[in-house]
Amino acid sequence: MTITTVSNEQLAKEYVDGVFEQLKQQNCHQAEFLQAAEEIFISLVPVFAQHPEYIQANILSRIVEPDRIISFRVAWQDDNNQVQVNRGYRVQYSNVMGPYKGGLRFHPSVNESIIKFLGFEQIFKNALTGQPIGGGKGGSNFDPKGKSDSEIMRFCQAFMTELYRHIGPDVDVPAGDIGVGAREVGYLWGQYKRLTKANESGVLTGKTPGYGGSLARKEATGYGTVYFVNEMLKDANDSFEGKTVVVSGSGNVSTYAIEKAQQYGAKVVACSDSSGYIYDPEGLDLAAIKEIKEVKGDRISTYVNYRPNATFTEGCTGIWTIPCDIALPCATQNEINGESARTLISNGVKAIGEGANMPSDLEAINEFLNAGVLFGPAKAANAGGVAVSALEMAQDSSRVFWSFEEVDAKLHQIMKNIYMDSKAAAEKYGFPGNLVMGANIAGFIKVADGMLMEGVY
C-alpha cells in the first residue's frame, strides 16, 4: 500500500484554484472583478500554505463575496424637464477593519463588475493604511460630462435620496472617485443632511476644507503615489532627481503626482485626458495644466496654446511610447497592457507607480516584474487618498481641523509604512522585492486575522 503525502503548498494551491473556479462560474461576465480577484489570489498560495487555519475557516470564499450589493434606480430631471434614469450601486464588501469605506464613481462605464473590482481592491488597500476602515465602493453610470451644474446637483440629490438609508459615519462612509469631486460631495452631503436632519459630517469624505473637509485631501492620492515610489527608489539607491517622468491622466491624482514629482526634481514631460495626450520635452507647465483643468474645465489639447513647442496626440495609449525613467499611470483601469509594458521596458523605464486603480493588466505586471522594473502596485501606491479620507473622518469625529503640513506629514508616514509592510511581507513569504505579492499578502493577513477573531457569520 502506497501512502501519498500532500504538501501544504499543494493543498493551498488546490484550495485557491477551487475558490477561483467557483468564482468564475458565478461571475463569468464580470471581467474586471475576475481580473482583480485573480491578481490577489495568485499572491495568496504561500499564505495558505503557512496558515491552514485560513483554509479551515474558508476565509477566501468569505472575503471575496461582498457583505451586500445594493443596486437602485436614480430618476432625475434634466434642464429640458425630461426625466432621465440611471442605475446606482453601493457594494459593501467588508467591515472587519472598520466602517465600509470607498469612493463613488460617476462614469458611463460603471457597472456591477467595475464596482465589485474596486470594492474588493479597497478591502486590502484600506487595511494597508493602518486606519480603522473597511472596504466598499459605489457609483452610477451617470456621465457628468456635458451636464449643467443644476443637472449634476439634481442627480446627486436623487442618488443620495436612495443611498442615505444604507450609509452612516459608523456604517459606511463614501467619498469621491472619477466624476465625483468636492462639488458633487457637497451636493450629496447637503441632501443627506436634509433627509436625516443630522449633521453627521463623518458620513462623507472629500468635502471642501472649512465645510468638514480635510486639507491635503485633494493632493493626497497623487502625493501618496510619489511618496511610495520615492521609497522604492531610495531602497535602490536612486531618486526622482533628474528623472524623466510620464504621468497619464490630468485629474486630481495626475495633477498632484506631477506637482510632487517636480518638487522632487523630476522633469515630467507628458500627461493625458480621455481625448489624447500632450508631450512637452522641456517639462510640463503645471500652472497651465491647473488653469486648463481646475479653472476652465477644458480639454488637455488646449495646452499647446500655452506652450507652442508642446504637441498633442489624439488617443491615450501612445503616451507609453514616450521614453521615460518613471511611469505613473494615474488615469483608469487597464490602461497599460503587455505591449505598452514591453515598449516602456525597451525604452528604459526604471520604476512604475500605479496612481489609478488597476491601471496595468496582468500581462503588463508580469512583464515589469520579469524585467526587474521597480513596481508599486495600486493597492499600495494609490492608498494615499483613502488614508487622508480616514484622517478626515478622525477630524470630523473630534471636531478638530489639522493644518496642511500636519496632514501631509501623516500621509507621508502612512505611505512609508505601507511600503515597509509590503516589502517585509514579500520577504517573509519568499518573494523579496515583489511588492505586488507583498501588498496583497500584508493587506490580506490583516483582514483574515480579523475575520478569525470575529468567527463565522
Automatic annotation (TrEMBL):
One of its GO terms (molecular function) is nucleotide binding. InterPro entries: Aminoacid_DH-like_N_sf, Glu/Leu/Phe/Val/Trp_DH, Glu/Leu/Phe/Val/Trp_DH_C, Glu/Leu/Phe/Val/Trp_DH_dimer, Glu_DH, Glu_Leu_Phe_Val_DH, NAD(P)-bd_dom_sf, NAD_bind_Glu_DH. NAD(+) binds at residues 221, 252. Keywords: NAD, Nucleotide-binding, Oxidoreductase. It comes from the Bacteria. Transmembrane segments: none annotated. The record marks 177 as: Important for catalysis. One of its GO terms (cellular component) is cytosol. The keyword Acetylation does not apply. Belongs to the Glu/Leu/Phe/Val dehydrogenases family. NCBIfam families: PRK09414.1. This is Glutamate dehydrogenase. The lineage of its organism: Bacteria, Bacillati, Bacillota, Bacilli, Bacillales. The gene is gdhA.
